[in-house]
Every structure is written in structure tokens, then in C-alpha cells.
Design brief:
TIM Barrel, 306 residues, eight-stranded parallel beta barrel, alpha/beta, 34% helix
């Protein structure tokens, strides 16, 4: 029987904290927040790791503050997925090896990238040791098209991660357009890479991928980004505004149907809400849990957490 985990892509997003709609008023610090979150949900996706390599110390604290069966999914650091970054987000000793001119840079030096991978793995090692790591999320940028060079980049990342479950989310339509869909899924399947089912605003440009439900390993992974078409590609706005969308109950029921259909093909299903403006993601995750419990007959002691 497969396990189903439902959660959000952050437990400490600024707009969530500012909303005052999830955490009780007695919650005053980081430790209390994570413990409370883990009492409500069975999993979380750490997205802060996209902006800075997670520290081993922080990961150890996260492991200590959550139940034994709690699962962390970790988003890969920006340099690991061909994104630009603020050079100040790098460890101090690595900054001298990169061109630090400008507020955003791309790292091209393979030795620096390899060292970043190495430190990232060390940073998440407490979760690995305690069996609390689900997947590392490799979200590639909109300009990352399907071609042999980029497929090699993905495979190299997989090799460097040394047996860690790697999940791949595409943002460029070329990977999932009809002529390439089968080839892309077979590529992931043949190389033990988990395909991420992404629900995103359907803007009619090359930067929009379609919602396609499938799996390529024994893990099915869903990321729900909302459907804010107006803000999705706007420049210069607060990042949470891009994800400012609350799914309606009919949309949540459709996601539940998709999860139920695919769960017998895998060992684990993760359903992660990234529509993190205020408490929208939290509410939608709770809605999905309630619907799945009704449809699947889960009780309070089962893997779905109410």
C-alpha cells in the first residue's frame, strides 16, 4: 500500500507568518513553528535551500524537532539547476572563485559547481542519516530546453547526488510537448529520476508546461503552484504575488482523483502546495487531506495527517 504525504513548500514563508492565520499566537520562535507544522502535516518542502546551501546544523535541528515519520523534501540550490544567483548567497570561501560583479551571476566553473554539490549533500546529511529525506527537487529554469546538452547536465547531477532521490521539474514546454513527451518520461524512467507533476498558470508561451500526470520511479511528486496567469511572468513584483492563488474545492477534488489513480503505481506520493501567498497553501493542503481521507478511507492513525 502506498503512502501519501501532503504538505506545503515552506513552513516559515514570510507571507504565511504575516497572515497570522495558521500558527497559534503562543508560537513565538522557529522551534515552536516547525513542531506545530509537523503536528499538522506529514511532510514539507524546504525552498529556502534554493537561495542558500542548507547548513548541517540547521538540518540537524529540523530532524530533532519533527516526528520520526516526518519527511523533508529539499529544493536544490540555484547553482545546481542552471539558475543565476546573488554571489553573496555563496559560502564566503567560494566567492573568490566566481565573478562577483553584479547582483546576479551564473556559475560556469565546473569545480565550483562540484564543490557546491558536495556541500549541499553534507548540509542535508542529517536527514539522510535519519531516513527523513524524500527527494531533492531539481527545478530547471524556463530557458532550459530539451536537448542533449541539458540532458547530460541532468544526468551529471544525478551521478553527483550518489543515490539520493532526485526529482525533476521542467519549466520549458519543449520537454513535455507531444513530440517529446514519451522520450522525456523514458529518459527520466531509464535513469531513476522522479518526474514532478507541476500545476502552473497556463500562459501561452514557451515558458509554460502543461499539467501531465505520470510517474517515472516509485515516487509520484506533485507541485501545485497556483494558476495566477496575470502575475506568473511579471517582472519586479514580490515573488509571493506570482503564487497568489487559492485553489477551489473542485480543483482540489481533481488533484485528489489524480493522486488516487496514480498511488497504486508507486510506493510514495507527495502532494506539495507552493501557492504560498498568506495561508492559501496551508488551507489547500488541509482541503486535500480531508478529501483524500474520505475517498481512500484513511483513519487518524494512517499516513495522511489531519
Amino acid at each position: 500500500m502506498s503512502e501519501v504525504f501532503v504538505g506545503t513548500c515552506s513552513w516559515s514563508d514570510k507571507s504565511l507568518l504575516n497572515s497570522g492565520e495558521f500558527y497559534p499566537k503562543y508560537i513565538k520562535n522557529a522551534e515552536q513553528r516547525l513542531k506545530y507544522y509537523a503536528s499538522v502535516f506529514s511532510t514539507v518542502e524546504v525552498d529556502s535551500s534554493f537561495y542558500a546551501i542548507p547548513s548541517e546544523k540547521n538540518a540537524s535541528l529540523w530532524v530533532e524537532r519533527t516526528p520520526d515519520n516526518f519527511i523533508f523534501n529539499i529544493k536544490a540550490f540555484s547553482a545546481m539547476t542552471q539558475h543565476s544567483l546573488n554571489p553573496m548567497s555563496l559560502p564566503v570561501d567560494l566567492r573568490k572563485y566566481v565573478d562577483s560583479q553584479g547582483s546576479r551571476i551564473f556559475i560556469r566553473d565546473e569545480n565550483v559547481i562540484e564543490e557546491i554539490f558536495h556541500r549541499f549533500i553534507i548540509g542535508i546529511s542529517p536527514m539522510i542519516k535519519k531516513g527523513k529525506l524524500g527527494v531533492v527537487v531539481f527545478q530547471y529554469p524556463p530557458w532550459f530546453e530539451k536537448n542533449d546538452k541539458n540532458m547530460d547536465i541532468i544526468l551529471k547531477a544525478k551521478r553527483v547526488m550518489k543515490g539520493i532521490n532526485c526529482a525533476v521539474e521542467f519549466r520549458n514546454v519543449s520537454w513535455l510537448e507531444k513530440n517529446n513527451q514519451v522520450d522525456t518520461l523514458n529518459f527520466l524512467r531509464d535513469n531513476g529520476l522522479t518526474y514532478i507533476v507541476a500545476d502552473t498558470p497556463q500562459v501561452k508561451t514557451s515558458k509554460t508546461i502543461r499539467y501531465l500526470v505520470d510517474c517515472t520511479t516509485d515516487i509520484a511528486y506533485f507541485r501545485f503552484h497556483g494558476r495566477n496567469i496575470e502575475n506568473w511572468q511579471k517582472k519586479g513584483i514580490e515573488i509571493s504575488l506570482k503564487y497568489d492563488y487559492e485553489y477551489g474545492i473542485d480543483e482540489i477534488k481533481k488533484f485528489a482523483d489524480d493522486i488516487i489513480r496514480i498511488k497504486d503505481r508507486v510506493k510514495k506520493v507527495f502532494a506539495m502546495f507552493n501557492n504560498h501567498r498568506g495561508s492559501q497553501a496551508v488551507r489547500n493542503a488541509m482541503d486535500l487531506i480531508k478529501i483524500l481521507k474520505i475517498c481512500m478511507g484513511y483513519g487518524m492513525g494512517d499516513r495522511l495527517t489531519e
